[in-house]
Amino acid sequence: MTVDVGPVPAGDPRLRALLAAYHLRTEEEKGVPVQDLADLPAAYLAEIEHPARSFAGATVLLATDAGTPAGCAVVRTPASAPAELKRLWTSPAHRGRGVGAALMARATALATEAGAPALRLSVWSWREDALRLYGRAGFHRVPSWESRVELVCLEKALG
Q1: I need a labelling partner for 50 at 20 to 30 A (CA). Which of 42, 43, 72, 129 fits?
Q2: pLDDT at 151 over 80
Q3: Which pLDDT value is given to residue 1?
C-alpha cells in the first residue's frame, strides 16, 4: 500500500464521495440517519455540492491509496491564531492502513509551516478510533469552544 497525501483544489471532484460518506456516517452516528444527500442539513450539503465555497481560504488535503481516494482533511491556518483541522475522514475501506496518520502528519506540517502556535480540532465523543489517533499525535483535551455537547475539543502545541 502506498498512501500519498497532498493539497488539491477544494473543488476537486474526488472529494465529493468522501465528504458525502463523512456526513452520512455522522448523521447515522447521531441517531438521525438520512437516506439521501438532499436530506442532510443545509451546511453539510453545501460542503458536498460546493466545497470550493465552503472551504475558501483553507487547504484541502486528499489522501490516495494506489491512486484511489482514501481520505481527506481540511486545514485552516489563520495568521497568529491556532490552526484548525476540519473534516479529517478516512474511507472505511482504507482504515487501519495509515491514511488518517498521514493526513494528520501533513495537516500538522502545514500548520507548523504557517507559523500557527497550535493545531486544534473537535471530534464527536463516540469516535473512539479518531480520539486514539489524535492522542497518539499529541493532542490533548482543552475547554470546549463548541456549543454541541458531544463534541470534544483537542489541541496540540506546535513549534
Answers
A1: 129
A2: yes
A3: 61
Q: Which of 73, 74, 15, 72 is nearest to 48 (CA)?
A: 15
> By three-state DSSP, how is residue 14 classified?
coil
Report the amino acid identity of residue 113: E
Please report the pLDDT score of residue 137 as a whole number.
94
For the chain, the residue count is 159
Give the angle subtended at the CA of 127 by the CAs of 144 and 83, to the nearest 5°: 45
- Residue 152, all three cell numbers: 470534544
Do residues 75 and 83 lie in contact, with contact meaning Cβ atoms separated by under 8 Å? yes
**Residue showing cell 482504507:** 94
DSSP class per residue in 66-131:
TTEEEEEEEEE--TTS-EEEEEEEE-GGGTTTTHHHHHHHHHHHHHHHTT-SEEEEEEETT-HHHH
Using the CB atoms, write b or e for 68-94: b if 16+ within 10 Å: ebbbbbbbbbeeeebbbbbbbbbbeeb
Q: What is the pLDDT of residue 20?
A: 95
* Structure confidence by residue, pLDDT tens digits, 124-149: 999 999 999 999 999 999 998 988 88
